[in-house]
Amino acid sequence: MKKIIILFFSMFLFANNLTPQEKEDVKIGEKYFKKILKKVEISKDKNKINRVLQVGKKLAKATNKDYKWEFVVVEDKRLNAFCLPGGKVVVFDGIFKVIDNNDQLATVLSHEIAHAILRHGHYKSQVNYILTAPKEIAKKTFGGFVPKDFHKVLDMAYDIGKNLTAMLPFSRFQEIEADKYGIKLMHKAKFNLDEAIKFWKNMEKYSKTNIPEFLSTHPNHHHRIEVIKREIEKIRNKK
Ligand SMILES: [Zn+2]
């Protein structure tokens, strides 16, 4: 049953342009992907599934990596998406709350894919969260309202005991790096780059009335928008 809804896309028959490290990534990704699929509620929304596949395929091609790309939409109200090492992309349907079109969806997916390609290890906290939190928490606690005990939720997301503040600067650097790389991917896949700015403005607006789920990794929308604008200018000046 699940197989019908998971979107599978393989660009090449043989994974021949991958480094040994990347081949290892594919294995790690596959292992976690299997575990995650057992734990989440997979969306049956055909419209969302098709949009994610359509956009994801183009971006996957733009990476020029022979990963075994797979895309799945899960029922989870949080604004989130992530890419496991080796090209397994998980999109939470909550993200559609702040997306106006497929170019904006490409903004999210390209950013997450960039983390995976740049080997940032961002999937770790996500995997940890999904595999340790009961399904009901993800579905209900984040159902569009602010959780009462936000810090408790943060602890869960980032594994209790981890030094959150020590992680922040590195993580912010990686965010910017993923934004820049993501914009390049969007450009290569011929998405409208102006929508990236609009998307982050949507996020900024949304964050004012809703506590952002990923406070530490997505810290300052204004700064990020400025970086993205500069990156787009650079691309356009090259022409
Ligand atoms: Zn990120």
Which runs of at least 5 residues are low in confidence (pLDDT < 50)? 138-167
Mean pLDDT: 80
- Spatial extent as radius of gyration: 17 Å
Q: How are helices and strands ordered from N to C?
A: HEHHEEEHHHHHHH
Distance between the termini: 47 Å
Helix content: 55-70%
Structure description:
- The structure is a single chain.
- The protein is α+β, with helices and mostly antiparallel strands and 239 residues long.
- The chain has helices at residues 2-5, 20-39, 46-63, 102-117, 123-132, 135-141, 150-158, 164-188, 194-209, 221-238, and strands at 7-10, 68-74, 81-84, 88-92.
- The chain folds into 2 domains: 2-117, Metalloproteases ("zincins"), catalytic domain (Zincin-like), CATH 3.30.2010.10; 120-237, no CATH class.
- Helix 8 (164-188) runs parallel beside helix 10.
- Zinc ion (ZN) binds at residues 111, 115, 122, 175, 178, 217.
Task: Describe this protein with a few key phrases.
239 residues, alpha+beta, Zincin-like, 2 domains, four-stranded mixed beta sheet, binds zinc ion
Concise synopsis of the structure shown:
The chain is α+β, with helices and mostly antiparallel strands.
Question: What secondary-structure arrangement, pairings included, does this model have?
Answer:
Blueprint: H1 2-5, E1 7-10, H2 20-39, H3 46-63, E2 68-74, E3 81-84, E4 88-92, H4 102-117, H5 123-132, H6 135-141, H7 150-158, H8 164-188, H9 194-209, H10 221-238
The chain binds zinc ion.
